[in-house]
Amino acid sequence: MKPSAGPIQAVNDFVVKFANVNGSGSASANLLFAKAILRMGIPVAPRNIFPSNIQGLPTWFEVRVNAAGWRGRRGGVDMMVAMNPQTWDQDLKEIEPGGYLFYDSTKPLPDTKFREDITVIGVPLTEICNREYSDARQRQLFKNIIYVGALSALLEIDPEEIAHLIGDQYKGKEALLKPNVHAMTIGRSYAVNNLDCPLGIKVRRANAVGERIFIEGNSAAALGAVYGGATVAAWYPITPSSSMAEAFARHCRKFRTEATSGKARYAIVQAEDELASIGIVIGAGWNGARAFTCTSGPGISLMQEFIGLAYFAEIPSVVFDVQRGSPSTGMPTRTQQADVLSCAYASHGDTKHVLLFPEDPKEAFEFAALSFDLADRLQTPIFVMLDLDIGMQDWLCEPLVWDDARTHDRGKVMSYEMLEAGKEFGRYLDADGDGIPYRTYPGTHPKRGSYFTRGTTKDRYARYSEDGATYVDNMERLLRKFETAKSLVPEPARRDAGHATRFGVIYYGSTAPAIDEALAALAGQGIHLDALRVRAFPFHDSIADFIAAHEQVFVVEQNRDAQLKSLLVNELVVDPARLMPVLHYDGTPITARFIGSEIAEKLAMFNVTPLRKVAP
Amino acid sequence: MTYLTKPRLHHPDLPKNKLGYTHRDYEGTVSTLCAGCGHDSISAAIIQAFFELDVAPHKVAKLSGIGCSSKTPTYFLGNSHGFNSVHGRMPSVLTGANLANRDLIYLGVSGDGDSASIGLGQFAHSMRRGVNMVYVVENNGVYGLTKGQFSATADKGSKSKRGAINNDEPIDMIMMALQLGASFVARSFSGDKTQLTPLIKAAVQHRGAAFLDVISPCVAFNNHAGSTKSYDFVREHNESVNRLDFMPQHAEITADYAPGSLREVRQHDGSILRLRKLHEDYDPRDRIAAMDYLQRRHADGEIVTGLLYLDPDAGDLHAALNTVETPLNQLGARELIPGAAALEKFNATLR
């Protein structure tokens, strides 16, 4: 079959998508493929698009190879590695005109199962496996490695890099190392001997990765929690946050085991549910340990009552929300930014919470460490808003850094000495005018500084009170404290277009890489927008200024209801008409192509015509 | 409740314990519960127990959920930090507090609604984990603060003050605690302070999850004929397995007990529990026998009180997690931050 429009020609800039059956071991093989390209100095952005299932359902793995270093999803597929008959038809449709199809040709398929405009590459993978291996499990696992080997010849991936990675992975396990390298070689040899290599898309060794590291956001956030001084973690398994708790345990074993005794400078409890998780965090925070839980939307819903207690009783606590497709069980293995409102106003009554929005694993590390300082300083729950895309995918990002001069800010804690010296202690007394009271740790002083913590109304000295004026006094102070929070949370990151423009764009979290790429593409077409990345709630005053300074501001988010836009309108004095939502919420990460075309289309209403049509 | 405030001045001749504290140093604010409430007797027993144990009040953290029982921590140990958390969730808050600082004594106070209904799950899991604590359930079989609804410990067939009959099977928290791995399990009666106070003292000294079910009649909503948690009913049906006298390690053993009626159990810290057995065949260290015995007495309509089960060598959650001896809340940045060099090494593994 000959492609009608000519095969795609691209070096170090293409998208390969693997369609597999879940539980077949394909994700590790596909990651091996991505890492080998990365080791050749070419940036990659892999995304595992997996089902809520252990075995049998369709799963995909997308690898974007991109020398320019764009980390978002591009949209479109240049090469499909179609290993799953269940999704064949759908997978075939996704291939760009002129693209490539790689498939297992053991069983002949009728012509109607193919397309005229793509290049088809068949490798009899099953046949090769059946010949080489007798064990069913080996046949399955090595089939994946064999196709990686074949792709290495087709795309000119250095087989030495693959062999090195296999060596790293199976260090000390010779029994596994050699057969894997052998399987890769079988696939490669088959391609070299039987296929036209290389294809129009291929890689070429480059020096575009530099010092950057390749890491999942959940692991980076967990390490941030270690550096941030968290000693107590309580969690309940829920996708996509479980791997953060597991990474915390791993990092702690490495960094927090007391050398002399082998004992743990941390405590991790897998609780019976999310209610207990947040309860443990609040108990630990009350007692002066830095504590966190990690969860996802359904867990946030379950924690509501406790979050209100922590807000009202002013207990430092940190919640990592690795957001997924909602509502209800929703799309548990897909990504969204749909918990913004449920976290900002979590619990019954008048509550407002501090939210942090990291854009990638590096910032997840930084914000995780920062969140514990903020929790202690502000004596309130802090939400670190990750999502599945940041949390569970490997991202290429700048190396993590730490300043050894930095220590932990434990906030306003009244010590034994301060109490002994007769300093006035009122647990809810606004001693400094910033809305933040002093607290004491239990057990500090025999006679002074003890108090009773409750979710019920109390006066400035923590005494039970049902008096209306006392209640209002306390609620007003909590507002002052929230105002103080504004000066402590990360400021928004503003990037101006470099051209005078009436238009702006506001975005946050994992939308950032797609925005970066989309804005560059739009600028290439003569459409310029100033950009503002929101990094925290409460909102810094400069956000309102940014909105006021632009005639129209696009608010790009990954949810249906424009939740950040609602929060902006609710919390800032801005003209809602200036804010125009751009929303992507099908569970896949937002793409640069989507953002570019949405913005260009909407701008057409303002008579802004691109110099050129939006590139595909 | 009483509206008389307690005088601030202490009598100069009030007896002092080893730390120089008087009984008054272990009291809290005036109770706002109904006059005659069994819970106030339990508070009195707690005050007595901590006074006699020579525990500095500020080294105790008292935690509770929501309900009449959960209000009581205000009424004792006024110099302790207290935490009145959310309904049914005291166990998780206590667990977290305990993880943060293993050096304090944790006293959890809950009720039957708080622990057997809304909080059954957290009760169960805190027992499973062996959190080092004293968990007191002030059990009256009724929701007092919301005026008289049945709780999950109300016996089947018992009658509410308004005349409704409870059709649901009761939850026996003692049996659950035994089954779930609590290492100290006792039941007492709020009206029997001589039994209750030593039990509380022993529970405080025990390392591991100590569970105390204290039947505490509700004078307002569950003290009528037809109730199985009334003063009269409990007195008539109480079957005590043993009397407990707690002897700390440093105390001279002077108690006068007839030979043959004593059983000494050495605790992990070397202190000795002395049990006066009312039944020669009752061995509180045998969990299976305890469960069997309780079931049989229950079938006969008897409420067994006393120390029902004790594992003197029990571990706790900190032992299971192998945490350092220093309380986690006292570790500083130096112990907690791996540093810049370690991070650079970590980066290198990700290239």
Structural description of this entry:
The complex is a heterodimer of chains A (616) and B (351). Chain A is an alpha/beta fold and 616 residues long. In chain A, 38% of the residues lie in helices and 19% in strands. Chain A has a seven-stranded mixed sheet, with helices on both faces. A six-stranded mixed sheet of chain A has the order 3-4-2-5-6-7. Chain A has a five-stranded mixed sheet with strand order 18-20-19-22-23, with helices on both faces. In chain A, strand 3 (44-49) and strand 4 (58-66) form a beta hairpin. In chain A, helix 1 (26-39) packs across helix 5, helix 5 packs antiparallel against helix 6 and helix 7 packs across helix 8. The model of chain A has no long low-confidence stretch (mean pLDDT 96). Chain B has 351 residues and is α/β, with parallel strands linked by helices. Chain B has one domain (23-334): Thiamin diphosphate (ThDP)-binding fold, Pyr/PP domains (Rossmann fold), CATH 3.40.50.970. Chain B contains twelve helices and 13 strands. In chain B, the strands form three sheets. In chain B, strands 2-1-3-4-8-7-13-9 form an eight-stranded mixed sheet, sandwiched between helices. In chain B, helix 1 packs across helix 7 and helix 3 packs parallel to helix 5 (120-129). The longest helix of chain B has 16 residues, at 38-53. Chain B starts with 37 loop residues before the first helix and ends with a helix. Classes of the chains: A alpha/beta (616), B alpha/beta (351). Chains A and B meet through strand 9, helix 7, strand 11, helix 9 and helix 11 of A and strand 2, helix 3, helix 5, helix 10 and helix 11 of B.
